[in-house]
Design brief:
With about 140 residues, this protein is α+β, with helices and mostly antiparallel strands. It has one domain (about 1-135): Nuclear Transport Factor 2, Chain: A, CATH 3.10.450.40. It is about 30% helix and about 20% strand. The protein is built from four helices and three strands; from the N terminus they run ααααβββ. It has helices at about 1-5, 25-40, 50-55, 75-90, and strands at about 95-105, 110-120, 125-135. β1 (about 95-105) and β2 form a beta hairpin. The chain is globular and about 40 Å long.
C-alpha cells in the first residue's frame, strides 16, 4: 500500500487516485497482486542462509538470488517455497498464506511460477485468493497475473 501511495500521490488540489485504503474487494485483490509481483521480483543482497537466521527487516525486502535454488532439486524447491511464504508473511500483511508451490514457467527459461493461495484479510473483508506470479523473469518480459 505504501508503494501505491508514493506512486500515485494526491496533488495539491486534492485530486488524483483515491488512497489505497478505500479499495473494494477487486481493487484490494489487485493491490495485493501488484505488491506480490514487486516483492517476489526484488532481490535482496543477502544470501538465503543469512536471511533464514535472522528476523527480516525493511532493508531485507525482497527475495535472495534464485540461483541458490537449483531447478530439479526437490529440497531446494521446498526451501524456496518456505522462503516465499515467509517473505510474503513479513512484507504483505494483508495476505494470510495457506500454501506456495513453485514450478518452472513454461515457455520462459528465465522464470519460475509461484502459485500462492490464502486469504486477504483487511477489516471485515476476508476473501480467499490464489495468485500465479512469474518470479525471476528477465526485464521487459510480461508478467502472468
Amino acid at each position: 500500500m505504501l508503494f501505491e501511495r508514493l506512486a500515485h500521490p494526491v496533488d495539491i488540489r486534492g485530486t488524483g487516485d483515491p488512497p489505497a485504503r478505500v479499495h473494494d474487494a477487486e481493487g484490494l485483490r489487485n493491490s495485493v497482486l501488484r505488491q506480490l509481483r514487486c516483492l517476489l521480483n526484488t532481490r535482496v543482497p543477502l544470501d538465503i542462509d543469512t536471511l533464514e537466521e535472522r528476523e527480516r527487516t525493511t532493508i531485507d525486502y525482497g527475495m535472495p538470488d534464485l540461483s541458490a535454488f537449483p531447478l530439479g532439486n526437490s529440497d531446494a524447491m521446498a526451501r524456496l517455497e518456505r522462503h516465499v511464504a515467509r517473505t510474503i508473511s513479513v512484507y504483505e500483511p494483508r495476505l494470510r498464506v495457506r500454501g506456495v508451490t513453485i514450478e518452472v514457467f513454461a515457455g520462459r527459461r528465465s522464470a519460475l511460477l509461484a502459485r500462492v493461495s490464502g486469504s486477504i484479510e483487511v477489516g471485515a473483508i476476508v476473501e480467499p485468493v490464489s495468485f500465479a506470479i512469474a518470479v525471476g523473469e528477465a526485464p521487459g518480459e510480461p508478467d502472468d497475473g
